[in-house]
Amino acid sequence: MDMSTAYGGSYTDNLIGTLLAIFGNVLVSISLSIQKYSHVTLAGTKDLRAFYHTKTWWCGFVLTCLGEGANFISYAFAPLALVAPLNAVSVLTSSILGLIFLREKSKPKDFAKRYGLSFLGCLLTIGGTYLFVAFGPNSHEKLKAENIVNHLVGWPVLLYLLLEIITFCLLLYFYKQRNANSLIIILMLVALLGSVTVITVKAVSGMLVLTFEGTMQLDYPIFSVMFVCMVAPVVFQASFLSQACKLHDSSLIASFNYILSTVLAVVAGAVFYLEFNKEDILHICMYLLGSAFCFLGVFLITKNRKKTKNFEPYVTMDMVKGVPTIHHKGLVVQPDSNGSFSYGALVNNDGAAPATHSVNLELTPARSRSTEASHGQPDLKRD
């Protein structure tokens, strides 16, 4: 009877945490799309206001706070093995919103060719999410301060933290001293910091929920330690991700960061909170299969993302008007014979109208010099 009650409570907690995590990730995706729409709309007008002066951007910011708050609370109810892989819901929602709001006019054949991988990735992500939620760990404990201290001083956790610190120092040495700017090295640094973050987030969230329920946990020293360890790695994670965005493609960063961060978060939950101790082999294998489907689905979704092209201008001179025109360098290999000649570049094919800039061409001095030259040579024969 006690076991059934305990498992019933764990099932209810897992359901609450899973729904909160899904809701939070969906809300964050919607908010980011709203903020991006605000930036694009403001850039396409002559409005001189900053982006944070618009109501649309603030609406997205409020939704972001609500979504991240839901994600934070979900760690108090569900295991890390369930909450961490649910970040795939954010990628899935962003992909669906992109197809809805950024759709282009194209033939069905071209649409299927371009978005076929994204559709397959969405199906794999949905199926994988169902598998790891259905077969994920069902054990959950109330994270009191005493329980967190007991987990922290156990030898498996200490050994795990030691290996993580050594690995992080080695990768940081190669990154700083050897200039190893590989994407895997940078994202491994982010994932190692992320594993510490999710451990501390779960501890802080659990103690806050217990405090709101009436059991004070904030006066324990372990709460302050966990809070500092939760905030500090986030700053370094943002720094490493910023460096990665400058050196590598954003689609690769999104997929590999999700995979590496999720793997290390699940391992951290299994070591620190012993989340898989009461699970059998079948449930573990099905959970791993669902996670693999999510990894593959996210990779396919981000792989098919349209890459942004840098602006590569070139100048053409209209032979009739004598006005230079700036174009965007396209993919055409043969310039058009349209009555203009280009300086060291090709005619654009981006479909956008070229931006014309008027230039005051001072031709009067040239004419005067030619006139003076003609007066200085009276003996030359004129045609």
TrEMBL record:
A single Pfam family, by name? Mg_trans_NIPA
- Subcellular localization, per the record? Membrane
**SUPFAM superfamilies xref list:** Multidrug resistance efflux transporter EmrE
Entry's transmembrane regions: 15-35, 56-78, 84-102, 114-133, 153-175, 182-201, 221-240, 252-275, 281-301
- Spell out the Polar residues composition-biased ranges: 364-374
* GO cellular component: a single term: membrane
Domain of life per record: Eukaryota
Q: Which UniProt keywords apply?
A: Membrane, Transmembrane, Transmembrane helix
Q: Where is this region: Disordered?
A: 364-383
Per its UniProt record, what InterPro entries does this chain match?
EmrE-like, Mg_trans_NIPA
Membrane topology of the entry:
Multi-pass membrane protein
One GO MF annotation is: magnesium ion transmembrane transporter activity
The entry assigns this protein to a family as follows: Belongs to the NIPA family.
Q: Which PANTHER family match?
A: NIPA-LIKE PROTEIN 3 (PTHR12570:SF14), PTHR12570
Q: What is this protein called?
A: NIPA-like protein 3
